[in-house]
Amino acid sequence: MAYLDTLKMDHPRLMLHEERVDRMRHWLRPKTFVQRWYAYVKKEADELLESDLLVYELPDGLRLLDVSREMVRRVYALGLAYRVGGERKYGERLVAELLQVCGFVDWNPRHFLDVAEMLHGVGVGYDWVYGLLCEKEERLIRAAIIEKGLRPALWCYEHGDELENRWTRDINNWNQVCNTGIVIGALAVADKEGEVAERVLERAVSALPISLKQFEPDGGWFEGPIYWRFASEYTCHFLAAMNSALGHDGGLGELPGLSETGTFLVYMTGPSGKYFNFADGHEELIGTPQMLYMAERYGQQMYAAHHIQKGEMSETDLMYWHEGLEKLNGGRYEEAMRGVDLDKVFEPCNVVSMRSSWEDDAMYVGMSFSNNGLSHTHLDMGSFVLDYGGERFATELNADDYNAPGFFTKERYCFYRNRAEGHNTLVVDPVVGDLERDRDDGGIMEPDQNLPERGTSMKAELMEFKADDERCAVKVDLSAGYEPRLKRFERKMRLERKAKEVVVTDWVESDESSDVYWFMHTEAEVVLHHEGRRAILRRNGVNLVAEVLKPDGAVFHVRKAEGFDQNRTRGEKSNEGYRKLAVLLKTVMREQVVVRFRGIE
């Protein structure tokens, strides 16, 4: 059966049918979510009425992406204000926005993410204001979707072996974002451009499972929570667009892991209100409206409660509104999380989350022992974050500047934030010297987990995971990332719920004596006591005690958050405001390091 055999021929057909818009209007009264989100959308739309139209610009010389994403935002703000509120001025401004970007010379196909996200915005916009378009405007916008979007997409599918087109067969978030944007564009014009739309749908729907498979078996995502956001959001847009336009999604919505993937965001969000930002990403919370879609699609109330309580509001919250949200008792988080496990290991992306409770002042630990060789990952095996009292104490540095020279080349591991010394893990026998020389001869001032050529061979192994009402403990074998300098590196994290205490235990063994550095980054004020055996970390009136329990004689030092050679790579972000708690073990062959953290009430 061809995909377009079941196409809904009328507009609007994408994402949001008129019957749901009618139900929104029915609920449009004080103290409802639909009223709150409509007010937000209308405010954004009113501001856009006074703003300039978008212009074609590549601020970094490579990407139109900021313009494409702003177009998506404008489409949903203006389009939802028009469709729900019914005021023609918003629809007419959206028509002007569409004509403007469709007049661009291209949508920057050399960086295809830009094309895909522009297709997303233009496809939805065209569909939603179709009834306002004159014949000339309709032809112009439809021609742009075909010539600037769908035909370049078909060329990429046919040349998928070329590096710049690898998204057509890749496992990372580009797959979902690009293929979803293409599908939305195709469905928007499918009634008049059936031949091209059918070809595109066949290629996109067959390519998506390559990436969707990465959600198996438990919904985890190897690129971290920020890129989970893109992967899952566009997956939900795909499912919504297909079901609204065709009445089915080709069965992709039932693939293993998708119904559980909302739990990944839940567990990767600490009680401090910050993400466990392993891999490229940042710790600040962002809008995740896909949690609303998944709450309805998969019957998971806690997804909606999490977004309402923890996520930032966005234009598409209103699009994924459903009546069940109005029965959430204000979206109370604690009620929605009642009975939900406090701890979880996500495999195979190899990330663990543990906490003392679901309350905002809980003790929380997240640890990554992921594969170092995948998209957006860092050399961070064993790194962790720690929250206590609503504050982030052990922190991961946010992603560095993507536009810095060499960031996405082999020079990626010259950036402090990407190397082991820029994370909360061990560094063994650092080499201090010229970065270029060290990189070329295979040593980037780091243990072997930092050698790029080791790539996907650097995999950790889960040895133990135990959880009960009193405590949770996880133990991982990180040796593969440190061979041959260490023949053994195992790390155990234990959280005591009632005591709000975390104990980090490391076992290291080597055939030759080595210098081992234990690092933990923080933005807290650090004061050393007991000749360095104890440290008091203070942040916003909250205190945390860190103690070196083993080995005898080991003490804390406070170091700057900088590389051993103290030189920054060109274009690298400043780490001002961060410092790191360090323990140095000189010339050891076999040792156990134990550090305990406990809160001070």
Automatic annotation (TrEMBL):
Heparinase II/III-like C-terminal domain location: 367-542
Localization in the cell: Cell envelope
Location (main, coarse): other
Molecular function GO terms recorded: lyase activity
InterPro entries: Chondroitin_lyas, Hepar_II_III_C, HepII_N
TM region positions: none
Cross-referenced Pfam families: DUF4962, Hepar_II_III_C
Signal peptide residue numbers: none
Domain named Heparinase II N-terminal: residues: 74-286
GO cellular component, one term: cell envelope
PANTHER family in UniProt: CHROMOSOME 1, WHOLE GENOME SHOTGUN SEQUENCE, HEPARINASE II_III-LIKE PROTEIN
Protein name from the UniProt record: Heparinase II/III-like protein
Organism of this sequence: Poriferisphaera corsica
Taxonomic path: Bacteria, Pseudomonadati, Planctomycetota, Phycisphaerae, Phycisphaerales
